[in-house]
Amino acid sequence: MREAWLGLLKHSLNRVTVPLARAGRGPFALVRHVGRRSGRPYETPLLLARRGDDFVAELTYGPNVDWYRNVVAAGHCQVVTAGVVHEIDRIEVLPPDDGLRAFGNPAAAVLRLLRRRDFRLLHVAAFDSRT
C-alpha cells in the first residue's frame, strides 16, 4: 500500500511541484540527486526549512524513500531553492526538537500534532558562495 501511495505521488503531485520548484515559485525546494543503482539524475520536490546556512528536511515517509537513500549513498546532493543551487556535502540526523524549531510555527505545531520526529540536516558545503 505504501509503495502504491509513493508511486501515485511521484507520478502526479511531483509533475506539478517540480516545475514550480525549479522556477523558484511556491514553497517547494528541489533535491537533485543521483540514483544509487541506476546512476540517473533525479529531482525531488520537498518542503525544507532553513537552519542558518543549512537546510532541514522532515522525513514524512521515513528514511527508506529513494531520494534520501540516494543522498546517503552518494554523500552529497544539491538543493535548489528560489532558483539558487546549493551544494550539500553531507546529511545528518537532527534531533526532533531542533528539527521542529527550524520549521517554526505554525508548521512546527502541525508537525507535532502529526507526531513527526524524523529530521535531517542537509549541510551546505563551505565552498558554496551562494549562502
TrEMBL record:
Signal peptide: none annotated. It comes from the Bacteria. It holds the Pfam family F420H2_quin_red. One of its GO terms (molecular function) is oxidoreductase activity. This is Peptidase. It comes from Paractinoplanes tereljensis.
